[in-house]
Specification:
alpha/beta, 4-stranded parallel beta sheet
């Protein structure tokens, strides 16, 4: 594990109620890792302008790399296309990382924004494109 003293972290992993369902998903291992570091919580979906709570969303037609390439979309369970909000949020997270010289980001697994598996989320894909290391939690 990288020993950089500053990183970004999915806000839901540190106990903030930013998930689509208005809840948090604090991760004890993530919190232990952050104990002696400076960290900035981010929620790409909120930064992109989506409300909390909000309908769950999923990637369709590909992964986050496909969304960034224009070949895949993000659609919520009500059928609304929320791709633009996901891209906007990802760009804002990248801007924060670049402004703070951050090279490590701890992200929530399984998220259409932050996940790496089973599909790379939109934010994870954008950060990877810019050389920022992702650690999934």
């Amino acid at each position: 594990m990288e020993h950089s003293s500053k990183c970004l972290v999915s806000a839901c992993l540190v106990g903030l109620c930013t998930r689509y369902d208005g809840r948090s998903k604090p991760d004890p291992a993530c919190l232990r890792f952050l104990a002696n570091r400076h960290w900035i919580p981010v929620c790409p979906e909120q930064l992109g302008g989506l409300t909390t709570p909000r309908p769950a969303a999923s990637l369709t037609g590909g992964d986050g790399h496909g969304v960034l390439a224009g070949t895949a979309r993000v659609v919520d369970r009500d059928g609304s296309d929320v791709t633009d909000a996901f891209i906007r949020g990802a760009r804002m997270v990248l801007a924060i990382a670049q402004a703070q010289d951050i090279t490590l980001c701890l992200l929530k697994s399984g998220s259409p924004s932050c996940g790496l598996a089973p599909l790379a989320g939109v934010t994870a894909a954008l950060l990877q494109r810019h050389g920022i290391r992702i650690v999934p939690y």
